[in-house]
Structure formats: structure tokens, C-alpha cells
Specification:
Elements (H helix, E strand, L loop, with lengths): L2 E6 L6 H12 L1 E5 H10 L7 H17 L3 E5 L5 H14 L2 E7 L3 H9 L13 H10 L10 E5 L1
Parallel strand pairs: 1-3, 1-4, 2-3, 4-5
Length: about 150
């Protein structure tokens, strides 16, 4: 059965590292919002248009699933409403929904973010205040959203 792995966590919590390290193990394709933003920027599209970016993330995820592969969705997904597209895609194609919740302390996220060797969209760390804001608004995944929740602390 195909699986949609939805990464949930603040910037600097380890989502992209986890995705890179586990994609082959799960036979999954990583679809990341930062990659889409970088593609938009390179093509002259607005990389800050969240609706367009996540519309493209959804389109790419559906294509991966239609090809019979699993997908890892690499984005913060910190609010339930920001991850409904992922849950809907999985339900539409009959895929298993797995949340990978990066439950890291704020101080660790800030430390990792400041020392990133692989930069997110734009080639710079996420501003510290943005990390704090996202961390403060993070809504943990719930069993009514996902078939399985894996907490990484």
C-alpha cells in the first residue's frame, strides 16, 4: 500500500534531514515545499505564493502516488489546516497516512537552524522570529488525521 509521510515540525527540527535519510528505506520520493519554492524562483514565479506552492506540492505528490510510489511531504505542516491537502491526497488515492512529528525543543530548533549546512529556500537560515512563531503555533498531529503518528523527540 502506498504511504504518504507528512513531516510536521518547526524549521530546524530535522525534517529535511530525516526525509533524505529515510526516502530510500521507504521507497519514497521526497516532495518538499522548499524545492518547489526554489523551482518557482528559478522559473520567475512567485516563491512566496503559498497557495501556488502547495498546489504544486499536491500535484507532485499525486503524480508520485499515481506512479505507485510512496511520498514524503517535507514542509512544516505546523497547523492542521496547512496539512489537510496532504490528508486529502492520501484519502483520495487510498494511501496510508503517517505523520512524522518532530517534537523538538525550541532551543534545539534555533540552534540547528542557525548552523544549517543545507539551506532552505533562499539559501539562508529561517529568521529566528519565524522559527519562534511557527513553534508557538504548532498543532500536534491527531489520530483523526492520520493512521499512524511517529513522534521524534
Amino acid at each position: 500500500m502506498n504511504t504518504v509521510y507528512v513531516l510536521i515540525g518547526a524549521p530546524g527540527s530535522g525534517k529535511s534531514t530525516w526525509a533524505r535519510e529515510n526516502a530510500a528505506r521507504f521507497g519514497a520520493v521526497v516532495v518538499g515545499s522548499d524545492d518547489v519554492r526554489n523551482d518557482f524562483h528559478a522559473n520567475g514565479q512567485n516563491p512566496l505564493d503559498g497557495d501556488a506552492v502547495f498546489g504544486e506540492v499536491e500535484r507532485r505528490a499525486r503524480a508520485v502516488l499515481r506512479a505507485g510510489r510512496c511520498v514524503i511531504l517535507d514542509a512544516t505542516h505546523y497547523r492542521r489546516r496547512y496539512r489537510t491537502y496532504a490528508v486529502d491526497v492520501a484519502r483520495d488515492v487510498g494511501a496510508r497516512r503517517v505523520a512524522i512529528w518532530f517534537d523538538m525543543p525550541l532551543a534545539e530548533c534555533l540552534r540547528r537552524n542557525a548552523h544549517r549546512s543545507v539551506m532552505a529556500f533562499g539559501g539562508e537560515p529561517v529568521p529566528s522570529q519565524v522559527v519562534r512563531d511557527i513553534f508557538g503555533q504548532l498543532e500536534p498531529p491527531r489520530p483523526d488525521e492520520f493512521d499512524e503518528i511517529v513522534r521524534i523527540a
